[in-house]
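REVIEWER CHECKLIST
Item 1: Sequence provided? yes
Item 2: Single chain? yes
Item 3: Sequence as submitted:
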Amino acid sequence: MDIQEVSGSPESIRQSPDRYNSLSDSLSSGPFVSRHPVPSRNVGNYLLYDPLQENVLRAANAHSGEELVCKVLPVSRYREVLCSYYCLPPHPNIIEMRDVVVGDAHAYLFFPRSYGNLGVMLQARRLPEDTARYLFRQLVSAVAHCHNNGLVLRDLKLNKFVFKNKERTLLMLESLDDAVIMQEGNTSPYCSPGHGDVSGGLWVCAPATDVWSLGVMLHALLLGCYPVGAGLTQERAVLTSQARCLIRSALHSNPNLRLSASELLTHPWLSTHAQAYTQAHTPDQTVPT
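Item 4: Structure as written out by the authors:
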């Protein structure tokens, strides 16, 4: 991936340039609707549209028309963010950075668009075990890939996994912005309180931290709630023994006794039911066109 450099501020686009008309028309309908029929500015080969959230914009490739998302970072910070993406080989369940354009003050990182996140889809309801298994396996596969390549993700949650397709059957981790690179010799780097497991009074970032987060997410997928209070009682009543075993293996209070992400993939609840599952959505979960 080449990094483009542009000088000065992003170029403003006149309100009715002919070469942008067809692209603007295609983006003015469907789930990727922009409130403005004409892009507000361009950066390199990309058109920028209205914001999705702070420092995140709708975007499109001016040549191919591909719909994208653009993250805007201070130019002083973008190299730090790129480290995680560059050290990680491609994986189907981890978002791929398409391009980087660097200006005088800001860097523009371009990613494929998504179709909603897993947290919004769940909305405090439990999923059937077959559906949860199909989705959760993708989460674990992404996390295991990161751990196997020396990355600890930190602060994992359902909202950080987004759907790649309109049918909402394929998931990807939407960002590596919070990831840290493990030190040589498998020694985990220290991080700020709020991330990690307490060991001897110190907060550390370790793969076991991400596994705990996976356990919390699986509990939410299967029971529609987090593993506190009534959720612990409900678990025994509605889940199979293998599902309960997997949750407890990920949520062991001693991080040294938790299964690794790679070991989770070989757990019977995931490995013995790995057949293709293509209906992980109901009709109301399909993104309209």
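Item 5: Key structural point noted by reviewer: The chain has nine helices and 14 strands.
Item 6: Recommendation: ____
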